[in-house]
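Preliminary data (for renewal application), coenzyme A complex.
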Amino acid sequence: MDKSTRFPTSLSGYEIEGLIGIDASRLVPLYQGCSDYVVLERGEPPNAATAKEEFESFPPNRTEADKFIFGVKAIDGEFVGLLACDRNYPRVECWWIALFMIDKALRGRGLGRTLCDDFFRWLKSQNVKWVELGVITENEQALRFWQRQGFKPMRTAGPVSIGAKRHMVQVLGRPL
Ligand SMILES: CC(C)(COP(=O)(O)OP(=O)(O)OC[C@H]1O[C@@H](n2cnc3c(N)ncnc32)[C@H](O)[C@@H]1OP(=O)(O)O)[C@@H](O)C(=O)NCCC(=O)NCCS
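Predicted structure:
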């Protein structure tokens, strides 16, 4: 599996692209379209470096080799969503979702749910057994979203510093 790997999506009018560090600048408009989320998480709006940071941040004892960043691209070539993951974290056969965001203008239309279904179906076909992620406890809408996708709370972590803010994080998981 290389960085151009992508998973099939059932969404018509969109395609998934496997991204690498040099693609960060192409994601700047999407980060602007998700600035509400960036402000909630970091206490400050996105800047030119914010997208780049996602390509350079890894869980403890992990490297770029296991990081996969999928862009969700509309027919006009603009990115409308991003899914960043770490393979085999925190253990083998488990993937960690580091970031999932959809442009604010397109939320609440079922894109998030469909992309999750597509992604989890593909992970399952790759013999992945489990998915985990962390949600900042302030992000109640996301907590509700993930619970609707079948995730269950596992533990609370933190406080962790992100940008100018400190957060408690709810770790959620689900089998595939
Ligand atoms: C979380 C996120 C990725 C979900 O993507 P989305 O495309 O909005 O997801 P969906 O449209 O599938 O579902 C979102 C909500 O809209 C509702 N919804 C789905 N289709 C709908 C429709 N046609 N009409 C109205 N509401 C709808 C869903 O029931 C869901 O409600 P819930 O949040 O109470 O569970 C998106 O809201 C987002 O980018 N949020 C900001 C970033 C973020 O918080 N990411 C998670 C970090 S852990």
